[in-house]
Amino acid sequence: MTVVEIDRLHSQLSRYEGMFPGYRTEIVEGNIVMSPLKPHHAEMIRRVWNALEAQVADEWGFISDVAIPFDGANEFCPDLAVIPEAEVAKNLSAYPPDLIELVIEVVSPSSVRNDYQIKEQAYARRGLPHYLIFDPYKAHCVTLWNPGPDGYLGRDTIPYGKTVAVDTGIGRLAIDTGKLPVDPAHT
Question: Whole-structure pTM over 0.85, yes or no?
């Protein structure tokens, strides 16, 4: 994807920045999708970020809710993505998907289809090596690896209370899910 293509794609989403406080805005399958944010969502991202930050080497960094243009129909803003720290330091408003070593989404009621189907297929087709889906409504984490044109070939579902361990190109990463927030309706 060229810089011109990234600029064109991001310009579609940048028009909406700041217009809808309390909502995350993405372009999914050519549609503008707004998801309301809840406290558990931000807390989940913070806890996962903190757990991973303590484990990755200094040359790796994190972005959250920053545009990742995939094509004309999809401009995702992952809840969390691990990319080279040198790229994070550039402080861009959009990054190419090829930089991502690990991508993480936290499910919200309005993002179930996007997180489990649309993004899973798009991330796999683009070759993102590892995708984690944290679901506070089902109290589990889905780990996906070994991407291909038809989706991820590897998939595990780990209930909260256990440790999620992922062998990545940047090392083995582990997240204790015992204290992750769970939607009160699930308990």
Answer: no
